[in-house]
Amino acid sequence: MGSTSLMAFWGSQVVGGKEYGRRFILESLNAFVEGGVHPVLYRENENGDAVFFIKGREIANTLQSASRRVRGPSDEKLTIRTFNCQQPFASLPEEDIALLKGLLEKRFSPEANHLNLSDFSNDPVVTSQPNYLGLNKNSVMMGVVNLLISCADKLHSVDLSKNQIRYLECFATLCSYCRNVQRLNLSKNSVRAL
To answer: Are residues 166 and 114 in the same domain?
Structure first.
């Protein structure tokens, strides 16, 4: 399923971005970034700025150079700031990543291009581990997402039911990489917002 090494994370801020909305901002930024912007943990802060994380210095530099060149709907110039930062979630140890990789391979059906992650935290392999590896934990979810990105073209459906997932920010990254996914089952979770 490929390498899981993470590139350095960079924070990105679009000043006043809340006014324009996520879709407009990402479509505007995608025009400047080859391969598109894949935001992690996108949110709007109390100052009305759009804030998110991206992987890689090259994309951060491209976004920084696009500052004041990106135009709003009324032709106003948008200010974009990027800054080096720590990973926005805890890293998983290599042993946990290897364990997740094995579980994903076991739960993937190549005939149907389907990945069954239903009731993941109750899998006997997961429950036998000293560390909690539930998909409702950001570090585990991002570990799974990073593994899935490496096989994105093979993935057509994912079952995430019965995982006590509350927030979908980490899976937004998966959606921007896995364009072939046609079905995503989120039933029997505690999703608070889409």
So the answer is: yes
Share of the chain residues as helix, strand and coil, in percent rounded to the nearest 5: 35, 20, 45
pLDDT digits (tens, 9 = 90+) for 11-64: 999 999 999 999 999 999 999 999 889 888 889 999 999 999 998 899 999 999
Q: Is residue 1 part of a domain?
A: no
pLDDT of residue 4: 37
Could you list the residue range(s) of the whole structural domain that residue 175 is in? 94-185
C-alpha neighbours within 13 Å on the C-beta side of residue 135: 30
Q: Which CATH number do you get for residue 58?
A: 3.30.70.330
Residue 177 and residue 101 in one domain: yes
Buried b (16+ CB within 10 A) or exposed e, 148-181: bbebeeebebbbbbbbebeebbbbbbbebbbeeb
Q: Do 45 and 109 reside in the same domain of the chain?
A: no
Whose structure tokens read 């324009």?
20
Helix (H) / strand (E) element for 36: namely none
DSSP 50: E
- In this prediction the pTM is 0.67
| Low-confidence winner among 17-21, 89-93, 103-107, 117-121 (lowest mean pLDDT) | 89-93
Q: What is the distance between the alpha carbons of residues 87 and 90, in angstroms, rounded to a whole number?
A: 7
